[in-house]
Write a structure and sequence with these properties.
Blueprint (H helix, E strand, L loop, with lengths): L2 E6 L6 H7 L4 E3 L5 H9 L5 E6 L5 E14 L9 E16 H6 L7 H4 L5 E4 L1 H11 L1
Parallel strand pairs: 1-3
Antiparallel strand pairs: 1-6, 2-5, 3-4, 4-5
The chain binds a DNA duplex (12 and 12 nucleotides) through loops.
Length: 136
DNA sequence: GCCAACGTTGGC
DNA sequence: GCCAACGTTGGC
């Protein structure tokens, strides 16, 4: 089962907002980058993703799961980009900061570090485990 | 507030 | 098809 990481500006849509959506989940739209869109298309039902706050927080807050696979992004008039639907699974016991991730040598290859502008990215199983360990 | 990285646009 | 100019993202 593949793992992912989704970025969001907490001022726009935060982990608290995602939690408040409950089992309705949230439509993850507005992605306008082809590489990120490619990842959205690869997501399967039940895949899990880390929920990352950019900006002041710069930390992973929780875990979400894909409840609807890629469909045309309702906010995209051109019809070229896609969205998915995600639902909160649980908060991390402790948020994992970008500084922690950068300090972890085994996470040096993580796309969060390597390609800071990418907003939707895959996470390897070992990276996933490492991050959850940091959150414990 | 600055800047590096990167995507997009438009002239040639 | 190349590349300079410009806009955006996101960390510092």
């Amino acid at each position: 089962m593949p793992y992912w990481l989704l970025k969001t500006e907490p001022e726009t849509f935060s982990w608290q907002d995602q939690l408040a959506r409950g089992t309705n989940g949230e439509c993850w739209d507005g992605v306008r980058n082809h590489q990120a869109a490619k990842h959205l298309r690869q997501m399967q039902l039940g895949d899990q993703a880390l929920f990352y706050h950019t900006g002041k927080d710069k930390s992973i807050q929780g875990i979400v799961t894909v409840i609807k696979t890629a469909f045309p992004d309702p906010s995209d008039a051109t019809g070229r980009f896609v969205a998915v639907q995600v639902q909160a699974v649980k908060p991390l016991p402790r948020p994992v900061t970008l500084a922690q991730i950068k300090a972890e040598t085994t996470l040096a290859d993580c796309l969060l570090v390597r390609q800071s502008r990418l907003s939707v990215m895959p996470i390897t199983t070992s990276q996933w485990r490492t991050i959850l360990r940091l959150a414990a």
